Automatic annotation (TrEMBL), chain A:
Its main location: cytoplasm. Keywords: Cytoplasm, Isomerase, Nucleus, RNA-binding. This is Topoisomerase II-associated protein PAT1. One of its GO terms (cellular component) is nucleus. Residues 1-804 form the mRNA decay factor PAT1 domain. It comes from Sphaerosporella brunnea.
Automatic annotation (TrEMBL), chain B:
GO terms for molecular function: RNA binding. Pfam families: LSM (PF01423). PROSITE patterns: SM. It is found in: Nucleus. GO terms for cellular component: catalytic step 2 spliceosome; Lsm1-7-Pat1 complex; P-body; precatalytic spliceosome; U4/U6 x U5 tri-snRNP complex; U6 snRNP. Residues 2-76 form the Sm domain. This is LSM complex subunit LSm2. Component of LSm protein complexes, which are involved in RNA processing and may function in a chaperone-like manner. Keywords: mRNA processing, mRNA splicing, Nucleus, Ribonucleoprotein, RNA-binding, Spliceosome. It comes from Sphaerosporella brunnea. Belongs to the snRNP Sm proteins family. One of its GO terms (biological process) is mRNA splicing, via spliceosome. Gene3D superfamilies: 2.30.30.100.
């Protein structure tokens, strides 16, 4: 009984995907119980085979009535027509039935329209057949598990033609019984998969093609015997059309560039049955819709089948043709195998799952595609990657963007490229559509007590809904608005406005600086997006616009620092710039702001700081109180921040400054600032050192005119006179054990410019300190000691002396 | 999106995730999504003796909602940039309606 390796003992109903398995829209099987009973008889498991003989030991005296009690035969075989008729023959019948049905179906394709009377009967049939899923068109549900089906094609032998009379009666009687029971089981809605197709942009065209190609044009296969039984032809309606194909199959076909012509799998079946009959392989590209070639050659899985040819045709083929045919045949088999492999995981996800994921991906794409959104939403990542990319140029793109948008890779043929382009276009369109859709983030149902908030990719699910008070924003708006107003009005207002003096508005002002700064920096980053300009060419429109915007933003930044506001010495309010500079936040922003300022503005910043040096927080708080050995840590931190962030850019500017600038600044400082207390602080001394050393450098390089040198000498003398008698105050208390390098640097720069008499005064004043330090350098650990010594030496060398002379 | 943006930069860095059930997992951050679900590779559990069933686990997917803390590698965080990003985020949130 075994044909083509088919195992007749296996229960046919156990092959294929179990119709009751979860995850598939199965039809209610009203005959499940019936079938189960049927199985008992079909199965090879027999009581006699498994009986262990224990029953023989029982008392058998009253067994006479056993028949009355249990019945002589197995009970309830009402529906088991085939089994009852011939236990052995039933498998044949089964196959036979299947085979016949396949023929009828084929015929019906030709013979549309089908007789209406046949419809009710045939439409019941699929549920009855134990292995109907085998045909790739299970009655109402999407294809449950293609891999099973596939294997079944391979293993199922061709049906045996038989007399069929008995079969007829079985078929019809069963169908009638079923017809009564199965009426309510209408095919489940086919909407879900189709909706999905429409929703998914990438698969949409495929779906369309499917629709277009229904019903599939069938050519009659010569190898198939005709319907011998006069069985009523079946309507195709009994078998759901290919449009029900789950999308994953379509995806698969897309990937493989397979034309997808729906074709009933029997053809494959037949091919096997007719033992590899030769055929001309028809390769059709469905997208091109060539009308000449009948679209036949692939089954619904994209597996290629071929049109069976009569054996004589094979013989009539030339050698070359045959070789070619065989080659194509092997290719076809290989491809089929590959598809079978791919199809292994089909159906793991329901359309709903895929729909959900696709929606997430689409949302992701929406935000990837919009550059503006991107910078806003993903600022940290983008900038961080950019910074890292500087050290590591192979920064990979975002995975998703790569997958969907930038797959311009050279692999694949032209058709594939074309296909990819289409896909990209579709994605782009879908993204545009998604963006165009208004985004409601909340829904308030009438009469409900709360709000329903939707989640999207950016706001997964807002847990807190904090209502923003509009007050703060208004206030800043007012300030902005005013700054737009006339400068004159502003001067008096700003100067007298106490609002700028309170902490909150100062912090707000700093934030405004940062906002302007960020805006400008983002704009600077956009420079790379401009087309590169060949040297010597006039700037294009885009460049002009870009630099205009840049200048605008730079000016906005500059004005946000409030530095342009005139200084009003009569007012007892601190200048706004100095006020905001007292915050470490602002100090940290200075180097970044400085980069965007032009030289004139930089000079303004420097001048502003110099003029207010004595009221600068770092100077005010930098003076040691008489009983203090150490500044409070908060002040020390501020001073460090100032030294690390504000001083470097100023120094950078100073080292390129011209002599008149240096001279003017020092003069201004002496005029406006109480230098003596300033000299008691680290920052104050740093400024003085800065001016003195730059002036000395310029003088030595010979760029200074006689007259300028004279003027400088005047200013220097003034400074010396001011500080004379206070040299020791420059040192921090307990200078032996703390870092006093800056003092020595200052003294050195003073000494370089001093005349003989001034030098002597200087040495006499700090002699004790020098000795103290030299002594300390001997006690202290070597590295610190050497440092101390070097510091002192800095000063000594400036006067042509050396510490070593002191012994 | 700031946190999402931030965590994306930590991909391939070693982080320690503390879950709300006190489980503490160290591993290489492989990916993170907008729900702050986290995928870790080559994981180690802090108190291995207490969670023997995790001894053989090599990688995990952690639902974002069960995370209590993420210990960050300090050198992988750009604090100044994070401040700026926070400013932008705040600016977006405030100006979201108006813009």
């Amino acid at each position: 009984m075994s044909f083509f390796g088919f195992d007749p003992s296996a229960n046919p109903s156990q092959r294929g995907h179990p119709s009751k398995a979860p995850g598939f829209g199965e039809t209610p099987d009203h005959f499940a119980g019936l079938q189960a009973r049927h199985d008992e008889d079909d199965d090879g498991i027999d009581f006699e085979d498994t009986y262990d003989g224990l029953g023989d030991t029982l008392d058998e005296t009253d067994d006479v009535f056993n028949d009355d009690t249990f019945g002589a035969t197995t009970t309830d075989r009402d529906f088991d027509f085939a089994g009852a008729t011939a236990k052995v023959a039933d498998v044949i019948e089964e196959e036979h039935a299947v085979y016949t049905r396949s023929n009828t179906r084929k015929q019906s394709a030709k013979q549309t329209p089908a007789p209406a009377s046949a419809v009710p009967e045939t439409s019941q049939l699929p549920a009855l057949v134990p292995d109907m899923s085998l045909w790739g068109a299970p009655p109402p549900a999407p294809v449950p598990a293609p891999q099973h089906q596939h294997h079944d094609f391979m293993t199922q032998p061709a049906a045996m033609p038989s007399t069929g009379k008995r079969f007829m009666s079985l078929e019809e009687v069963e169908a009638q019984i079923l017809a009564m029971n199965q009426k309510p089981s209408a095919p489940p809605p086919q909407q879900a998969p189709r909706q999905f197709q429409h929703h998914v942009p990438t698969s949409q065209p495929m779906g369309n093609q499917f629709h277009q190609q229904l019903p599939p044009p069938h050519t009659p296969s010569p190898g198939v015997p005709m319907n011998q039984f006069g069985h009523p032809t079946m309507d195709l309606r009994g078998f759901p059309p290919q449009q029900q194909l789950p999308p994953h199959l379509q995806h698969m076909m897309q990937q493989n560039q397979m034309p997808q012509h729906p074709q009933h799998p029997q053809q494959l079946h037949q091919d096997r049955g007719v033992a590899q009959q030769p055929a001309v392989q028809q390769r059709v590209n469905p997208r091109e819709q060539e009308p000449v070639v009948p679209p036949q050659g692939r089954n619904q899985y994209g597996m290629t089948t071929h049109i069976p040819m009569p054996a004589q045709q094979l013989q009539s083929m030339s050698e070359a043709d045959r070789a070619r045919f065989l080659e194509e045949e092997s290719k076809r088999l290989k491809r089929n195998h590959k598809i079978a492999q791919l199809a292994r995981y089909n159906g793991l996800m329901t359309p709903q799952d895929k729909n959900f994921i696709q929606r997430i991906q689409l949302q992701q794409l929406v935000s990837i595609n919009s550059a503006e959104d991107n910078v806003n939403e993903d600022f940290y990542y983008i900038v961080h990657s950019a910074i890292r990319a500087r050290s590591n140029p192979q920064q990979p793109l975002s995975q998703l963007a790569q997958t969907y948008l930038f797959r311009h890779g050279g692999r694949g043929n032209r058709r594939q490229d074309n296909h990819l382009q289409r896909m990209e276009q579709q994605v782009a369109r879908a993204v545009a559509a998604a963006k165009a859709r208004p985004k409601a983030s909340q829904l308030v149902l009438e009469g409900s007590l709360g709000k329903i908030s939707f989640s999207n990719v950016k706001t997964p699910r807002p847990m807190l809904n904090i209502k923003k008070s509009e007050g703060g924003a208004d206030q800043t708006k007012k300030v902005e608005h005013m700054s737009v107003g006339s400068q004159r009005a502003l001067i008096s207002q700003e100067a007298q406005k106490p609002s700028l003096a309170d902490r909150k508005s100062l912090l707000r002002a700093i934030e405004n600086v940062y906002d302007a700064l960020l805006e400008l920096e983002i704009h600077e980053r956009d420079r790379s997006k401009l087309p590169t300009l060949p040297p010597g060419q006039p700037p294009q429109e885009a460049h002009a616009q870009w630099s205009m915007k840049r200048d605008q933003l730079a000016y906005k930044l500059y004005s946000e620092t409030k530095i342009h506001l005139p200084i009003d010495f009569s007012s007892h309010y601190t200048h706004p710039f100095v006020a905001i500079l007292s915050f470490s936040k602002m100090k940290r922003a200075i180097p970044r702001v400085f980069r965007h300022l032009d030289p004139e503005q930089r000079l303004t910043v420097l001048t502003m700081i110099v003029v207010h040096l004595d009221i600068l927080d770092v100077v005010k708080h930098g003076i040691y109180r008489p009983d203090e050995m150490q500044l409070p840590s908060a002040h020390r931190e501020e001073i460090d921040t100032f030294a690390n962030h504000v001083l470097p850019p100023l120094l950078g500017y100073m080292y390129e400054a011209s002599f008149p600038v240096v001279h003017g600044l020092l003069k201004l400082m002496l005029d406006r600032v109480d230098v003596q207390p300033v000299s008691m602080t680290k920052i104050g001394l740093s400024f003085l050192t800065m001016f003195l050393s730059r002036a000395e450098l310029l003088k030595q390089s010979g760029q200074v005119s006689e007259h300028e040198a004279m003027e400088w000498q005047n200013v220097y003398d003034r400074l010396f006179a001011t500080l004379n008698g206070h040299w020791n105050d420059c040192f921090p208390p307990n200078g032996k054990f703390v870092d006093d390098q800056y003092v020595w640097q200052f003294l050195a720069s003073m000494a370089v410019g001093a005349n003989m008499q001034q030098q002597q005064t200087l040495v006499a004043a700090v002699k004790d300190r020098v000795l103290e330090n030299v002594q300390a350098s001997k006690i202290l650990p070597p590295e610190i000691g050497v440092q101390k010594r070097e510091n002192v030496n800095l000063f000594m060398r400036a006067m042509g002396l050396d510490v070593d002379l002191l012994g | 999106m700031l946190f999402f943006s931030f965590f994306k930069t930590l991909v391939d860095h070693e982080v320690t995730i503390e879950l709300k059930n006190d489980l503490c997992i160290t591993g290489t951050l492989k990916s993170v999504d907008q729900f702050l679900n986290i995928k870790l590779d080559e994981i180690r559990v802090k108190d291995e003796a207490r969670y023997p069933h995790l001894a053989a686990v090599k990688n995990v997917f952690i639902r974002g909602s069960v995370v209590r803390y993420v210990h960050l590698p300090a050198n992988a965080v750009d604090t100044a940039l994070l401040e700026d990003a926070t400013r932008r985020e705040a600016g977006n949130a405030a100006g979201g309606k108006g813009r």
